[in-house]
Write a structure and sequence with these properties.
5-stranded antiparallel β-sheet, disordered N terminus, globular
Length: about 375
């Protein structure tokens, strides 16, 4: 259902950061292009919006679309049952997957099609290319749907012999290959697990190779959709307290960086710019590492566990129930927000051009990066 100019009511569970978040802000704050208050408090750490030059498409209890220029709410769309992990924008359509997968007209919010998979898909990030919309489910299955009609192109079970629950945490596509990131529970209560990366043929869904992190008796995972960076796939392991790179043609691990002791690892995958990969982690550090080797170039401490980050030109925006802006080349803190228990960013970021967008506990925000 589409309702223009109407803000959805929604209440979600807040992400709790660890560490000391006391202290005043410092540095010059980034320019706020607009701030749109939300009708009901919104707080989540794992939804990713999408943006183009005209609109911001956000997951906030439902699909809420804002004008990229003014922050005005343009249209909303009510979800079926669950909250998708992300919105995907492609070819004038917005896609997402939860209890159903669906496509909306990006300009009007009109529903174009919907598809019901075998199991819900809200725990994993979806993606699209020029041909199809791809997502994974709680039943360790990856789907490819025709973008225009929602017709099933193929589906592949990447864990047919897994004894316990297996969740596809994210799907990425590059060239003729789809890469699925998954967590396989290896005990009934989930206290141990493996992380998996499975490469599939984009056209048929046929398996090409697979990589496993963990030996069945450890706590490991692949926590989100992978970043494709040249020959490498960049991944995060929340439960194994690390981030790492795998060769996307051989399926062999190339390097791994361990998080600071006593913390879980990152959720969001590293992002590559040139020959450097960047990452913000729950261990209260932001990292810059050599893309090919994983050697740490710099790491900068933040006030608390980091929810999300985005690289925008020479800056890195980081959220930790507050906002920090770092110099991408040196890791120097350019700005750190004061602590505000009532108004702080909580979602992941979307970027378009010189703007970054994020939703928070009380509002949606558009910042300018330089």
């Amino acid at each position: 259902m589409v309702k223009k100019g109407f803000a959805l009511a929604f209440v979600l569970v807040a992400f709790v950061a660890c560490g000391d978040v006391t202290g005043a802000g410092r540095g010059k704050a980034p320019e706020v292009i607009w701030r749109t208050p939300l009708a009901v408090r919104y707080s989540t750490s794992d939804q990713t919006p999408a943006a183009d030059g005209e609109r911001l498409y956000a997951i906030a209890g439902g699909m809420v679309t804002f004008s990229a220029h003014t922050g005005e709410i343009v249209w909303t769309y009510s979800l079926d049952r669950y909250i998708p992990s992300n919105a995907v924008l492609r070819n004038g359509r917005v896609f997402a997957a939860e209890n159903i997968a669906f496509a909306l007209d990006a300009e009007t919010g009109a529903e174009l099609w919907r598809f019901t998979p075998d199991e819900q898909a809200s725990h994993g990030e979806s993606t699209a290319d020029e041909h199809a919309f791809y997502f994974g489910t709680w039943s360790h299955r990856v789907y490819a749907l025709d973008q225009a009609t929602g017709a099933l192109l193929w589906s592949t079970d990447i864990g047919p012999d897994w004894q316990y629950t297996g969740i596809v945490k994210g799907v990425s596509v590059s060239g003729d290959t789809v890469y699925a990131a998954a967590r396989e529970y290896t005990a009934a209560n989930g206290y141990i697990s493996n992380g998996w990366i499975v490469a599939l043929d984009r056209t048929t869904g046929r398996e090409l190779w697979r990589y496993r992190s963990g030996n069945g008796s450890q706590l490991r995972s692949v926590s989100s959709a992978l970043t494709v960076a040249g020959r490498l796939l960049l991944a995060s392991d929340l439960h194994g307290s690390s981030f790492f790179a795998v060769d996307r043609f051989t399926g062999q691990e190339v390097w791994r960086v361990e998080s600071a002791p006593g913390f879980v690892g990152p959720v969001q995958a590293p992002v590559a710019v040139g020959d450097v990969a960047y990452l913000a982690s729950n261990d209260e550090y932001v990292y810059a590492v050599e893309l090919q080797t994983g050697r740490i170039i710099w790491k900068t401490h933040t006030p608390a566990s980091n929810n999300a980050f985005v690289v925008c030109d020479d800056q890195i925006f980081v959220t930790w129930l507050g906002l920090s802006v770092l110099d991408r080349r040196t890791g120097r803190v350019l700005y750190q927000s004061p602590v505000d228990q009532h108004d702080f960013p909580t979602s992941r970021f979307a970027r378009h051009g010189d703007r970054v967008y994020v939703l928070g506990s009380a509002a949606a925000y558009a910042y300018r990066c330089k």
